[in-house]
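Hey everyone, long-time lurker, first post.

I ran two proteins through the pipeline my lab uses and got sequence/structure pairs for each. Pasting them in order. The first:
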Amino acid sequence: MSASTQNAKTAQELGLKRTSWIPEYWTQAHIDVWKNIDEHWDLLITKKVDEFIKYIDPQMIGYGHESPIPVDRPWLEKWVGFWTKSTNIAIAELRPIQMKLHGDIAIVQYLIFTVEVNAEGGKRVIRRYTMTWQKSTDRWVVIGSHNNLMDETLKH
C-alpha cells in the first residue's frame, strides 16, 4: 500500500453528507473542491436556497436538463426556489467521476442519484454533471455548468 493510500480518508471520515465514496488518489486540493460540492448539494436538498445560491458565481452560465436555453444565476434563484418548495428529496448520493484542477479552476464531472417526491409521486432520478468551479475568497463557486438526465431516468 502506498503512503498516499495509507493516508487516504473515507468520505465518512471527511464528514461528507451526500457522498459515500471518493477516489483514494485524490489530493487535499481535490478533497477541498469536493467538500464544497457536497455542501452545495446538501444545502439544496435541505431547502436552504439562500445558502445554496452563495455557491453560484453571479456571472455563472450553463445548461440544465430542463431548459433549451442557457441558464444563469437569476434563473436559478427563481426556479430552484420553486423546485425546493414543490419537491422533497428522500435520499441522494453524489458520485465523483473525474476532476481536473487548473490552479483556481476545477472541472468536475459527477453523477447525483436521487429519489424525489412531489405532487406527481416519487421517482428515481439520475443526473450527470460537468461543472466548472472557481476558487473565490471563502469557497469554490460554480462559473459554468451542464447537466442532463440519464437514460435510466427517462425510461421511468
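...and the second, right after it:
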Amino acid sequence: MFFVLRYPGTWIEPRDEGWVLQQIISSIQDEIAEATLSLIDFEHEQANCPTFKAPDLAEIQGASSRRQHIEQELFGNTSFDVPRVSSEDWLRRSVAVDEEILRRTLEQGILPKDISSRRVFVAAKSFALAAAAIERLCKVAGHSISAASASDSALRMLADRLPGIKGVRHSLVHVEDRRRGQKGRGKPIDFQPIDMPGFVQAPAGLMIGFSLVNHVLCITQADGTVGQLPIDEDTVATLTGAAQILIDGLMWTGPPSIWPRVSW
C-alpha cells in the first residue's frame, strides 16, 4: 500500500486565504491517515475473523460443568439439587450465572463475542467517516476563491468514483432516523427496489442496516436506495487523488515536499 501527497511548495498564495486552506489540507492529511489505518485494521479483522464451529460434545459437557460449579458457588446448590424448581427461579439463577461468567471472562481480558465480533464494523465505520470527511473538506476548500476550481474538480472525481460516499455517511451519522425508517425530520423513507445478487433482492425495497458484503459497506440511504462504499486500497487511492487535485490547483511558493514525511 503506497499513497503520497506531493506539495509543489510550502505556502499557499494569497496568504490571507492560504492560511485557512493549509489548515484544511492538514485535516485532509489526518483523514487520509485515519482511512489508511482503518483499512489496515479492517483487513486484519476480516482475515482473522473466526468461522462458526458448532461445539462438540466434550465442549458442551465442559461448559455445563462450569455453569453448575458457578451456580453452586452462588447459591450453595444447583438447580438439579432443588426439587421442583420454578421456571422463574431457574431463570433467575441462569441470569446470575451468566453475569458471573461474563465478569470472570472480562477479568481475564477476554471480550465476549458480542463485542469482539464488532471490530471489523468499527474499522469499516471509521474508514467511511474518514472518507466522507475528506469529501466535505474538499467542498469547504471551495469557499475560498483561489481554490474554487480545484475543489470542483476534486469533488467531481469523488462523485464519479465513490458515488455512495455522502449517502453512506449521512446514514451512519443519523442512525436514529434510519432505525425508524425515516430520512429525517420525521419523513418516511421511500424504499427503492434492491437487486444485489448474493446478498439481497427485494423488489419492494428493504431497510438494510450497517452491513458488510465482503469488503463493501452497504446501508440504506435517505433516498431509499442502498449506498455502497468499498473499503479497499482503490478507495484510499481515490481519496488521495482527490486531495492531490486540490493541492495541484492552488498557487504555491517555497520549496516542494511530500507527505507522509520520511522518517529517519
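Reply from user beta_strand_b:
Welcome! Quick read of the second one: The chain has a mean pLDDT of 92. Residues 15-47 form the longest helix (33 residues).
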